[in-house]
Amino acid sequence: MAEKDPFHDQNKPLDTKLLRYVWRHTRAEQIWILFVIILSMPTYFLVLDLPVRIINQPIQGRGFEQVGDTQQFLDISFGLPNFLGGQSWVLFEGFTLERWPYLIALSCLFLTLVCINGLFKFYINTYKGRLGERMLRRMRYSLVDRVLRFPIPHFKRVKGSEVASMVKDEIEPFGEFIGDAFVQPVYLGGQALVAFVFILNQSFWLGMIAVAIIAFQMVLIPYLRRRVLELGRMRQLTARLLSGRIGEIVDGITSVHVNDTSNYERAEISSRLSDIFFIRYELYQRKFIIKFLNNLLAQITPFLFYVVGGYFAIRGTLNVGQLIGVINAYKDLPSPINGLIMWDQKRTDINIKYAQIIEQFNVKGMSDARLQAPSLEPVAPLTGDIEVSNLAVTDETGTVLLEDADFVLPLKSVTAAVGPMGSGAGATASVLAGLINPTSGRVRLGGQALHDLPQSIRGRRFAYAGTETYLPQSSLMDTLLYVNKHAPLRERDLKALGIERHARHKAEIIASGNTMLDFHADWVDYEAMGIKDESELLPKLHDVLSAVEMKDTVYELALRQSLTEPRHEELRAKLLEVRAAMRARIEGSDLSDLVEVWERSDYNDHATIAENLLFGSAKDSSKVSADALVANDYLREVLREEGLEKDLFSMGVELAETAIELFADLSPDNPFFEQLNFMTPEQLEDYPPILVRAREKGFDGASESDRRMILKLPLSYEEQRNRLKLLDEGLQNRILAARKRFHENMPEDMAEQFSAYDQAAYNVNNSVQDNILFGRIAHGSSNAADRVGEAIRELLAHFNLGEAIFRVGLEFDIGTGGKRLSENQRQRILVARALLKGADMVFLNRALNTLDARQQERIVNNLLARARGEDGHKPFGLFMVLSTSRYAQKFDHVMMFQRQRLIAHDTPERLKDDNDAYAKLVA
Amino acid sequence: MSKLSDEVDLLRSIPMLANMPANKLKLLAFASDHMNYKEGDILFHQGDDADAAYIVVEGGADVLVASHDGGTPSKVAELGPDSFVGDMAIIGDIPRTATVRANSDLRTLRIRKEHMMDMVKDSPTLAMAVLQELVNRLAKTTQDLSEARDEVAQLRANG
């Protein structure tokens, strides 16, 4: 018999009924919890029963009529009902106790039972909760597992935010329900049945009335609920569409702004919200009507009991005791019945939601889970040729992307594909890289169909980069290494990483059917990159980044980073040495004209008044913006005490006057505004009335808000830059005195945020460059920034910090979607990591099309040198769809595409001689 | 007002800007940067994209032009205080036609292209002045050319 296929469950479509899905995965647990509930019943019953006994016996004295009477405590006996003969057996005689000790004993027993009952409840509830959470985990996992196996063209129709909302939110209510899925109906049904049997036992006809009414309820309610279910489905769909639309607005926010369509978007959202509102409103109406009917029917039954039962009692066919018994028993019937109805309502509601979600995840053409099976073994390099015959590709709309392609592509060949957009060149690269499946024809590698190869082969031996440059948010380093994380290769010391793992970590993974692969292990495949281990990683990254001319960018990113992490401790100390060396180099050289170093006792002419006052920086730079500073009571107090407030105020008045004089008649987008560093074009309009009041009333008469508006202007003033001759030596000295005072008595909450400049201390709020320089680059000296940058680079090299700084650059957070890098940088990163992978064949599909022509040519040269194995690099095959045909001559082979067909495939020399169209292209 | 008055005076000494209204000159002064060079520093290279024009405040600079075949650049002119250099390239949006190198410690006032262009668009006086300057230079170039031709013709006749 064949062994059970381990991928069978993963490949099967998901169950379309939630209960079936739940039963399949939690059968044993559901039976166990039911058993525990039954086990808890006697205690529960006793907890209800004991108070009656306590009141009746020891308190009210039943059974203690005579002084000295005793009762048996903890006697255990069984008795048969009278109609079965009324025999009884005594298992345990119990203890004989008098009234007072009996009361104490019963009360203590009550307390014990309450505790046991509470523990039972605690156990049952946590067990059910855990069961639900496990199922939730399993469901979420298998949904994402499916997303990972969707055919790639399917993603054209899927909105990311909708999938996210399904996996995260829509599935959430299932957790609660799953714990009760089977227990609740059994439990409630049992209760209802007992009460019902009791009624039937008392009076058949009254019982029949109850049956009739319940039956009526069972028919009527589902009928009414049909519309409710329909509405529930609509509610879910509309809510999902809403979240999809909101996602689209966020992703496409630029087109909203450039087209002035924000109001169109508002209207659309409003219209969607309106749909949702009316669906929900009708849902409430219907739900409460059903509730009303339920209650009504529940009350009609006793009404009938009184009338019909009363009639029988008066006629004498039923005795009064029986009637009271029936009515009492009936009291216990509605709540389990209602519970059952509620359960059923929840079940159908959740079933619909479930079906709605599952439908989206049972996609046709999903790839076989077997192809994505994890493989811990290294994959041997591929050999042979890629043979393509009769290949045709059409997209899902039926548009032909490529037809009749026949060619052989040796794995080590260096081939350029040329042709305009949509000519079939790009489609060929996509098919070969496995992104789209051929519609007809064959693509074979070493005799095997390429599309049946597991992803562990294709994904490791092929590399691909296209025009699309979406990068998930992470550090630059992780972005690069992402391509070589195929399997957890080495365990890591989790304690050292500060990761705590729950004792049940593994058990819970198994219980919810998740993958056993450890996310926190070291996944990076260093061997594939051609290096031994982590110690050789940096030179390797340096190498691939220089191939795409990103090395200097990484270095510059590093200089702009701030080093806040504890792991940077050592580097920070080293950078202080660099700072000292920088200072020595500045002093006495012509660099001293280019940099003005921070000195506690000197005014820095190349910094603003605010910077000179603060002489330090804050963790959160918005706390030291001009707006925040004028609103800061402590700073204002310092200014007042130094008599600076009035001076700065009159300076502010002059600045406002100058700004109005020079800029008032310019439009806000005029390039001159870039030079106005103390005011924005929008603020300019606010100042004329403030200025009138300020002139009229002076500082003393001005309102606080006017004072702030005026005072914030000089804070951004920089004498060397603005040259308005507003700062004389006296004023500078008073600013220095204020600086001293400001540092002396700083309130605690501010001191926490703030670190003053200190020649001997690294300032974590500032960038690496600011820390090395510990000063300001002077305005008005030619090439100052370049020359200072060069000096910094030399010093870092001198201190052997090049590698450490490079590592800091790799820690740069690239932002959501990689947006903190420019598009052209993202393209270069994608090409760099295609090189890093150590693949046998690299496909580049117009992957450098946003670069300028000169840079593109240099990078193509680097790529070709590497592919051909020059300078000790491992050679690899290269298939490059060119965005500019000019470079085709440099390749060994050229494939020329036109109108979705391959029209020529030869060496560039022969093509140039034989093919006029090609000769024209590369001319 | 004394603020920016030095710069305004300097700008006014340039013939092309002499007739500009005071507030425009002041705006231009406010927006311009002081740029200092040491002897031998290059202000810009022949063939670079032009992003600014310079007014020499103090010191001097050499204007160097390389011949077409890429030979060593030769000095064609020398600039002293109050000369305006690089103006045509920023107005005409053409690459630098010459290299300018400081021949002593040099202080300049740097006027960005976008500011200059904004001024020209805004002020017919300035546009007219630019036109006049162009005509003058064209006349001078024409005259130089005809003199050069005469010289060439004479040399040929002699040779």
**What share of residues of chain B is helical?**
40-55%
Global geometry of chain B: globular
SSE-based structural type of chain B: alpha+beta
| Helical residue percent band of chain A | 55-70%
Spatial extent as radius of gyration of chain A:
40 Å
Number of helices of chain A: 36
Summarize the structure in words:
The complex is a heterodimer of chains A (about 900) and B (about 160). Chain A has about 900 residues and is α+β, with helices and mostly antiparallel strands. In chain A, about 55% of the residues lie in helices and about 10% in strands. In chain A, helix 18 (about 550-560) packs across helix 32, helix 25 (about 685-700) packs across helix 26 and helix 35 (about 910-915) crosses helix 36 (about 915-920). The model of chain A has no long low-confidence stretch (mean pLDDT about 85). Chain B has about 160 residues and is an alpha+beta fold. Chain B has 5 helices and 8 strands, in the order H-H-E-E-E-E-E-E-H-E-E-H-H. Chain B has helices at about 5-10, 20-30, 85-90, 115-120, 125-159; strands at about 35, 40-45, 50-60, 60-65, 75-80, 85, 100, 105-110. Chain B has a 4-stranded antiparallel sheet with strand order 1-8-3-6. Chain B has a 4-stranded antiparallel sheet with strand order 2-7-4-5, with no helix packed on it. In chain B, a hairpin with an 8-residue loop joins strand 4 (about 60-65) and strand 5 (about 75-80). The interface between A and B is medium-sized, with 21 and 21 residues.
Question: What labels describe this entry?
Answer:
heterodimer, A: 923 residues, alpha+beta, 6-stranded mixed sheet, 20 strands, B: 159 residues, 4-stranded antiparallel sheet, 43% helix, globular
How is the secondary structure organized here?
The complex is a heterodimer of chains A (923) and B (159).
Chain A: H1 8-11, H2 18-59, E1 70-73, E2 76-79, E3 88-92, E4 95-98, H3 99-149, H4 160-170, H5 172-180, H6 183-202, H7 204-251, H8 253-258, H9 262-315, H10 320-331, H11 334-361, E5 385-394, E6 400-410, E7 414-418, H12 425-432, E8 440-445, E9 448-449, H13 455-461, E10 462-465, H14 476-481, E11 485-490, H15 494-497, H16 505-511, E12 522-524, H17 537-547, H18 551-560, H19 569-586, E13 595-597, H20 609-614, E14 616-618, H21 626-630, H22 633-641, H23 644-663, H24 681-684, H25 687-701, H26 704-715, H27 719-722, H28 729-744, H29 748-753, E15 754-756, H30 768-773, E16 775-777, H31 784-798, H32 802-810, H33 823-836, E17 841-845, H34 853-867, E18 877-881, E19 893-898, E20 901-906, H35 908-914, H36 916-922
Parallel strand pairs in A: 7-18, 7-19, 10-17, 17-18
Antiparallel strand pairs in A: 1-4, 2-3, 5-6, 5-8, 8-9, 11-12, 13-16, 14-15, 19-20
Helix pairs in contact in A: 2-3, 3-5, 4-7, 6-7, 6-10, 6-11, 7-9, 7-11, 9-10, 17-33, 18-32, 19-31, 22-28, 23-25, 23-26, 25-26, 35-36
Chain B: H1 5-12, H2 22-31, E1 33-37, E2 42-44, E3 52-58, E4 61-65, E5 74-79, E6 84-85, H3 87-92, E7 99-102, E8 106-112, H4 113-122, H5 124-158
Helix pairs in contact in B: 1-2, 4-5
